[in-house]
Design goal:
Layout: H1 6-38, H2 43-57, H3 61-79, H4 93-118, H5 122-130, H6 135-165, H7 177-188, H8 191-228
Helix pairs in contact: 1-2, 1-4, 1-7, 2-4, 3-4, 4-6, 5-6, 6-8, 7-8
């Protein structure tokens, strides 16, 4: 059916999964950093966090991918000679893709985490302090577990969007399953067959992700739902 290109596309699918997982890991770090800035009592830090979230969420993903990949590479090659490096620097498409998607979705996750933190009653932190916990203990033992529960629905949506956005990285030369499918389609002149196969693989990936994240949401909501009843 895939005329011998099945294994090649599956190799591309594995690269796509690596890209998605690595990008989301970076996005979580940047999202937490972003929400820390946005909730900071220091005005200029809060302004910096808001600017990051607002600007990045207001520009199309494809435009940012092209801007960061080509603009970043041009900037590196302008700065490198000043530091004594004369060779041309060619960015690795996978690393560039991880950095770009992580940077983009870090802005989206900062908004998700912000809503989750604001959804936690202030009395929770006050109760922890009354029991003798320090600020670090209150944050990790009381705030973070509740934040995770509240953030999972928004996180799920961002993960699904990020997973689909990985297809855009093929435009900068990453040989993911979209890139492989395009090569196979050009070679066989049967684009429908290979793009349909890629669509099915994306559907499998997102469906498995949904099942896993819904299970995680139920796990984090067990005690809360019991208390509400």
């Amino acid at each position: 059916m895939l005329k011998g290109y099945g294994a090649v596309i599956l190799d591309g699918a594995w690269l796509t999964l690596q890209l998605a997982l690595s990008s989301m890991a970076l996005a979580i770090v940047l999202g937490l950093l972003g929400v820390a800035l946005r909730l900071s009592p220091v005005r200029w830090l809060a302004w910096l966090g808001d600017m990051y979230a607002t600007v990045i969420r207001g520009i199309p993903d494809l435009v940012l991918i092209l801007l960061i990949f080509y603009g970043g590479q041009d900037l590196l090659n302008r700065v490198a000679p000043l530091l004594g490096h004369e060779d041309y620097i060619d960015l690795n498409p996978l690393m560039a893709g991880v950095g770009t998607l992580g940077f983009i979705f870090g802005a989206y996750l900062s908004e998700t985490f912000r809503g989750a933190f604001l959804g936690i009653p202030k009395g929770q932190a006050e109760a922890g302090a009354a029991y003798g916990m320090n600020g670090r203990q209150v944050f990790f033992r009381i705030m973070v577990p509740q934040m995770i529960r509240l953030a999972i629905p928004g996180f799920t949506n961002n993960w699904l969007v990020l997973t689909k956005a990985t297809a855009l990285i093929s435009v900068v030369g990453l040989q993911d399953m979209m890139f492989k499918a395009k090569q196979a389609a050009d070679a066989t002149r049967e684009p429908f067959t290979f793009f349909l196969a890629v669509a099915a693989l994306y559907l499998v990936l997102t469906s498995v992700s949904l099942l896993a994240l819904r299970y995680l949401e139920r796990r984090y909501s067990v005690g809360v739902k019991a208390a509400e009843l």
